[in-house]
Amino acid sequence: MRHPAFIDKIQKLPSIAQTIQDFNLLKRKGFSKSLGQNFLTDYNIIQKIVSFSGNVSDKIVLEVGSGPGGLTRAILEHNPKELHVVEMDPECITVLEALQKDFPQIHIHHQDALTFDIQDIAKKQNKIHIVANLPYNVGTALLIKWLKNTVLIDGMTLMFQKEVADRITAQVNTKQYGRLSIISQYLCKVDNCFYLPPHLFTPAPKVDSCVVHLKPYEDVDAGLLSMLEKITEKGFGQRRKMIRSSLKGLVSEEQLNHSHLKPTLRAENLTLENFITLATELKRGKNAQ
User: Fold this and answer.
1) Do both 201 and 283 map to the same domain?
2) Of the candidates 120, 132, 124, 118, which has an alpha carbon nearest to the alpha carbon of residue 56?
3) How far is residue 39's CA from residue 203's CA, in Å, rounded to a whole number?
4) 146 contacts 153 by C-beta, under 8 angstroms
5) For 103-138, how does the pLDDT look when each residue is reduced to its tens digit (9 = 90+)?
6) CA separation, residue 238 to residues 139, 148, 209, 248, 266 (Å)
Protein backbone atom coordinates (compact mmCIF):
# COMPACT_ATOMS: atom_id res chain seq x y z
CA MET A 1 0.00 0.00 0.00
CA ARG A 2 1.33 3.45 -0.93
CA HIS A 3 1.92 5.78 2.01
CA PRO A 4 0.80 9.43 1.61
CA ALA A 5 3.82 10.89 3.45
CA PHE A 6 6.24 9.01 1.22
CA ILE A 7 4.28 9.86 -1.93
CA ASP A 8 4.51 13.55 -1.02
CA LYS A 9 8.29 13.34 -0.56
CA ILE A 10 8.72 11.51 -3.88
CA GLN A 11 6.57 14.02 -5.78
CA LYS A 12 8.87 16.84 -4.69
CA LEU A 13 11.84 15.19 -6.39
CA PRO A 14 12.91 16.06 -9.96
CA SER A 15 11.38 13.89 -12.68
CA ILE A 16 13.21 10.77 -13.83
CA ALA A 17 14.06 12.46 -17.16
CA GLN A 18 15.42 15.49 -15.29
CA THR A 19 17.48 13.23 -13.02
CA ILE A 20 19.02 11.53 -16.07
CA GLN A 21 19.92 14.98 -17.40
CA ASP A 22 21.15 16.39 -14.05
CA PHE A 23 23.49 13.45 -13.47
CA ASN A 24 24.48 13.27 -17.14
CA LEU A 25 23.67 9.55 -17.19
CA LEU A 26 23.40 9.20 -20.95
CA LYS A 27 26.17 11.45 -22.27
CA ARG A 28 28.89 10.65 -19.77
CA LYS A 29 31.93 8.63 -20.79
CA GLY A 30 31.03 5.75 -18.48
CA PHE A 31 27.57 5.09 -19.99
CA SER A 32 27.48 1.48 -21.08
CA LYS A 33 24.94 -0.48 -23.05
CA SER A 34 26.93 -3.54 -21.99
CA LEU A 35 25.44 -3.05 -18.50
CA GLY A 36 21.95 -3.21 -19.99
CA GLN A 37 21.32 0.46 -19.23
CA ASN A 38 17.95 1.22 -20.80
CA PHE A 39 16.16 3.64 -18.50
CA LEU A 40 12.38 3.58 -18.03
CA THR A 41 11.16 7.15 -17.52
CA ASP A 42 7.34 6.92 -17.47
CA TYR A 43 6.57 6.98 -13.75
CA ASN A 44 3.03 5.65 -14.23
CA ILE A 45 4.49 2.52 -15.86
CA ILE A 46 7.08 2.25 -13.10
CA GLN A 47 4.35 2.40 -10.44
CA LYS A 48 2.43 -0.25 -12.35
CA ILE A 49 5.42 -2.60 -12.08
CA VAL A 50 5.56 -2.18 -8.31
CA SER A 51 1.80 -2.74 -8.01
CA PHE A 52 2.27 -6.35 -9.19
CA SER A 53 4.69 -7.04 -6.33
CA GLY A 54 1.90 -7.07 -3.73
CA ASN A 55 2.28 -5.55 -0.29
CA VAL A 56 5.91 -4.59 0.34
CA SER A 57 5.18 -2.16 3.18
CA ASP A 58 7.45 -2.84 6.14
CA LYS A 59 9.12 -5.65 4.15
CA ILE A 60 12.70 -6.27 2.99
CA VAL A 61 12.99 -5.45 -0.71
CA LEU A 62 15.86 -6.03 -3.15
CA GLU A 63 16.26 -4.00 -6.34
CA VAL A 64 18.92 -4.68 -8.97
CA GLY A 65 20.15 -2.04 -11.42
CA SER A 66 18.54 1.14 -10.14
CA GLY A 67 19.69 3.45 -12.95
CA PRO A 68 18.20 6.93 -12.37
CA GLY A 69 16.17 5.65 -9.43
CA GLY A 70 12.68 5.49 -10.94
CA LEU A 71 11.80 2.04 -9.65
CA THR A 72 13.57 2.88 -6.40
CA ARG A 73 11.19 5.80 -5.87
CA ALA A 74 8.10 3.75 -6.65
CA ILE A 75 9.15 1.08 -4.16
CA LEU A 76 9.83 3.74 -1.51
CA GLU A 77 6.26 5.01 -1.88
CA HIS A 78 5.20 1.74 -0.23
CA ASN A 79 7.46 2.34 2.78
CA PRO A 80 9.53 -0.87 2.85
CA LYS A 81 11.34 -1.69 6.06
CA GLU A 82 14.60 -1.99 4.11
CA LEU A 83 15.33 -1.37 0.44
CA HIS A 84 18.59 -2.95 -0.68
CA VAL A 85 19.76 -1.71 -4.06
CA VAL A 86 22.54 -3.46 -5.99
CA GLU A 87 24.15 -1.23 -8.62
CA MET A 88 27.46 -1.42 -10.51
CA ASP A 89 27.52 2.00 -12.16
CA PRO A 90 29.26 4.61 -9.94
CA GLU A 91 27.22 7.46 -11.45
CA CYS A 92 23.97 5.69 -10.60
CA ILE A 93 25.35 5.12 -7.11
CA THR A 94 25.57 8.92 -6.84
CA VAL A 95 21.86 9.16 -7.68
CA LEU A 96 21.11 6.60 -4.95
CA GLU A 97 23.20 8.45 -2.40
CA ALA A 98 21.19 11.59 -3.05
CA LEU A 99 17.96 9.63 -2.46
CA GLN A 100 19.38 7.99 0.64
CA LYS A 101 19.60 11.37 2.39
CA ASP A 102 15.80 11.54 2.48
CA PHE A 103 15.14 7.80 2.70
CA PRO A 104 17.51 6.15 5.21
CA GLN A 105 15.95 2.71 4.65
CA ILE A 106 17.94 2.55 1.39
CA HIS A 107 20.96 0.26 1.64
CA ILE A 108 23.37 0.66 -1.28
CA HIS A 109 25.46 -2.28 -2.51
CA HIS A 110 28.03 -1.21 -5.10
CA GLN A 111 28.72 -4.58 -6.70
CA ASP A 112 27.82 -7.07 -9.40
CA ALA A 113 24.38 -8.56 -8.71
CA LEU A 114 25.67 -11.99 -9.77
CA THR A 115 28.00 -11.98 -6.77
CA PHE A 116 25.45 -10.56 -4.31
CA ASP A 117 24.25 -13.14 -1.78
CA ILE A 118 20.61 -12.59 -0.80
CA GLN A 119 21.25 -14.55 2.39
CA ASP A 120 23.09 -11.45 3.59
CA ILE A 121 19.82 -9.48 3.76
CA ALA A 122 17.20 -12.15 4.40
CA LYS A 123 16.31 -12.20 8.08
CA LYS A 124 14.91 -15.07 10.11
CA GLN A 125 11.17 -15.39 9.36
CA ASN A 126 11.51 -12.39 7.01
CA LYS A 127 11.63 -13.41 3.37
CA ILE A 128 12.60 -10.79 0.83
CA HIS A 129 10.73 -9.32 -2.12
CA ILE A 130 12.71 -8.76 -5.32
CA VAL A 131 11.51 -5.97 -7.61
CA ALA A 132 13.82 -5.20 -10.52
CA ASN A 133 14.17 -3.98 -14.07
CA LEU A 134 16.88 -6.52 -14.85
CA PRO A 135 19.77 -5.79 -17.20
CA TYR A 136 19.08 -7.84 -20.32
CA ASN A 137 22.54 -9.40 -20.38
CA VAL A 138 22.29 -11.01 -16.92
CA GLY A 139 18.53 -11.39 -16.38
CA THR A 140 18.38 -15.14 -16.99
CA ALA A 141 21.47 -15.86 -14.88
CA LEU A 142 20.07 -13.83 -11.97
CA LEU A 143 16.71 -15.59 -12.15
CA ILE A 144 18.32 -19.04 -12.08
CA LYS A 145 20.41 -17.99 -9.10
CA TRP A 146 17.34 -16.76 -7.21
CA LEU A 147 15.27 -19.81 -8.13
CA LYS A 148 17.79 -21.89 -6.22
CA ASN A 149 17.10 -19.76 -3.14
CA THR A 150 13.30 -19.49 -3.20
CA VAL A 151 13.15 -20.49 0.48
CA LEU A 152 14.41 -16.94 1.16
CA ILE A 153 12.06 -15.19 -1.27
CA ASP A 154 8.42 -14.16 -0.86
CA GLY A 155 7.97 -12.95 -4.43
CA MET A 156 9.77 -11.62 -7.50
CA THR A 157 8.46 -8.94 -9.86
CA LEU A 158 11.00 -8.77 -12.66
CA MET A 159 11.35 -7.14 -16.05
CA PHE A 160 13.07 -9.13 -18.79
CA GLN A 161 13.39 -8.85 -22.52
CA LYS A 162 10.27 -10.38 -24.05
CA GLU A 163 12.08 -13.46 -25.38
CA VAL A 164 13.19 -14.47 -21.87
CA ALA A 165 9.79 -13.71 -20.32
CA ASP A 166 8.10 -15.86 -22.97
CA ARG A 167 10.42 -18.75 -22.10
CA ILE A 168 9.65 -18.42 -18.38
CA THR A 169 5.88 -18.53 -18.92
CA ALA A 170 5.80 -20.88 -21.95
CA GLN A 171 3.39 -23.79 -22.12
CA VAL A 172 3.93 -27.30 -23.43
CA ASN A 173 4.15 -27.85 -27.22
CA THR A 174 5.45 -24.36 -27.97
CA LYS A 175 8.88 -23.40 -29.32
CA GLN A 176 9.55 -21.21 -26.26
CA TYR A 177 8.95 -24.13 -23.87
CA GLY A 178 12.16 -25.40 -22.32
CA ARG A 179 14.35 -25.75 -19.24
CA LEU A 180 13.63 -22.26 -17.94
CA SER A 181 9.87 -22.86 -18.25
CA ILE A 182 10.02 -26.14 -16.31
CA ILE A 183 12.29 -24.98 -13.48
CA SER A 184 10.49 -21.65 -13.03
CA GLN A 185 7.01 -23.18 -13.05
CA TYR A 186 8.01 -26.06 -10.78
CA LEU A 187 9.25 -23.67 -8.10
CA CYS A 188 6.87 -20.73 -8.58
CA LYS A 189 3.45 -19.61 -9.67
CA VAL A 190 4.36 -17.62 -12.75
CA ASP A 191 2.32 -14.76 -14.27
CA ASN A 192 3.01 -12.64 -17.32
CA CYS A 193 1.99 -9.13 -16.15
CA PHE A 194 2.37 -6.87 -19.20
CA TYR A 195 4.61 -6.02 -22.17
CA LEU A 196 6.52 -2.78 -22.72
CA PRO A 197 7.49 -1.50 -26.19
CA PRO A 198 11.00 -0.08 -26.80
CA HIS A 199 9.89 3.57 -27.08
CA LEU A 200 9.18 3.67 -23.33
CA PHE A 201 12.93 3.43 -22.61
CA THR A 202 15.87 5.79 -22.96
CA PRO A 203 17.79 4.80 -24.99
CA ALA A 204 15.27 2.55 -26.74
CA PRO A 205 16.33 -1.12 -26.84
CA LYS A 206 15.90 -3.19 -29.98
CA VAL A 207 13.45 -5.60 -28.33
CA ASP A 208 10.21 -5.52 -26.37
CA SER A 209 10.29 -6.03 -22.61
CA CYS A 210 7.94 -7.86 -20.27
CA VAL A 211 7.20 -7.85 -16.54
CA VAL A 212 6.81 -11.27 -14.93
CA HIS A 213 5.71 -12.04 -11.37
CA LEU A 214 6.95 -15.23 -9.69
CA LYS A 215 5.48 -16.39 -6.38
CA PRO A 216 7.46 -19.29 -4.84
CA TYR A 217 5.42 -22.29 -3.76
CA GLU A 218 5.65 -23.27 -0.10
CA ASP A 219 5.34 -27.05 -0.56
CA VAL A 220 7.85 -27.83 -3.32
CA ASP A 221 10.02 -30.93 -2.98
CA ALA A 222 13.42 -29.26 -3.31
CA GLY A 223 15.00 -32.70 -3.54
CA LEU A 224 13.55 -33.14 -7.04
CA LEU A 225 15.14 -29.97 -8.39
CA SER A 226 18.52 -31.50 -9.20
CA MET A 227 16.78 -34.36 -11.05
CA LEU A 228 14.63 -31.91 -13.01
CA GLU A 229 17.73 -29.94 -13.96
CA LYS A 230 19.46 -33.08 -15.26
CA ILE A 231 16.43 -34.32 -17.21
CA THR A 232 15.65 -30.95 -18.79
CA GLU A 233 19.29 -30.33 -19.67
CA LYS A 234 19.47 -33.57 -21.64
CA GLY A 235 15.94 -33.46 -23.01
CA PHE A 236 16.01 -29.88 -24.29
CA GLY A 237 19.68 -30.06 -25.23
CA GLN A 238 18.50 -32.28 -28.11
CA ARG A 239 14.92 -31.10 -28.26
CA ARG A 240 14.16 -32.48 -31.73
CA LYS A 241 15.10 -36.02 -30.71
CA MET A 242 12.69 -38.50 -29.17
CA ILE A 243 13.15 -38.84 -25.41
CA ARG A 244 14.32 -42.44 -25.70
CA SER A 245 17.36 -40.95 -27.49
CA SER A 246 17.76 -37.57 -25.79
CA LEU A 247 17.44 -39.05 -22.28
CA LYS A 248 19.50 -42.16 -23.05
CA GLY A 249 22.02 -42.86 -20.31
CA LEU A 250 19.96 -41.00 -17.73
CA VAL A 251 16.49 -42.51 -18.03
CA SER A 252 15.78 -46.06 -19.18
CA GLU A 253 12.85 -47.08 -21.35
CA GLU A 254 11.60 -49.04 -18.35
CA GLN A 255 11.49 -45.83 -16.33
CA LEU A 256 9.71 -44.09 -19.19
CA ASN A 257 7.13 -46.87 -19.18
CA HIS A 258 6.71 -46.64 -15.39
CA SER A 259 6.10 -42.92 -15.88
CA HIS A 260 3.48 -43.71 -18.59
CA LEU A 261 5.48 -41.78 -21.19
CA LYS A 262 5.82 -42.89 -24.81
CA PRO A 263 9.52 -43.12 -25.79
CA THR A 264 8.64 -41.47 -29.11
CA LEU A 265 7.68 -38.16 -27.48
CA ARG A 266 10.01 -35.18 -27.52
CA ALA A 267 10.88 -33.06 -24.49
CA GLU A 268 8.68 -30.22 -25.72
CA ASN A 269 5.69 -32.62 -25.62
CA LEU A 270 6.07 -33.38 -21.90
CA THR A 271 4.03 -31.38 -19.43
CA LEU A 272 5.43 -30.08 -16.16
CA GLU A 273 3.59 -32.94 -14.42
CA ASN A 274 5.29 -35.41 -16.78
CA PHE A 275 8.70 -34.03 -15.89
CA ILE A 276 7.89 -34.20 -12.17
CA THR A 277 6.77 -37.83 -12.54
CA LEU A 278 9.95 -38.67 -14.44
CA ALA A 279 12.16 -36.89 -11.89
CA THR A 280 10.41 -38.79 -9.09
CA GLU A 281 11.00 -42.09 -10.90
CA LEU A 282 14.64 -41.19 -11.41
CA LYS A 283 15.07 -40.19 -7.76
CA ARG A 284 13.41 -43.44 -6.64
CA GLY A 285 15.79 -45.46 -8.80
CA LYS A 286 18.81 -43.57 -7.45
CA ASN A 287 17.71 -44.12 -3.85
CA ALA A 288 17.23 -47.83 -4.52
CA GLN A 289 20.84 -48.24 -5.65
Assistant:
1) no
2) 132
3) 7
4) yes
5) 999 999 999 999 999 999 997 678 999 999 998 889
6) 24, 24, 28, 11, 9
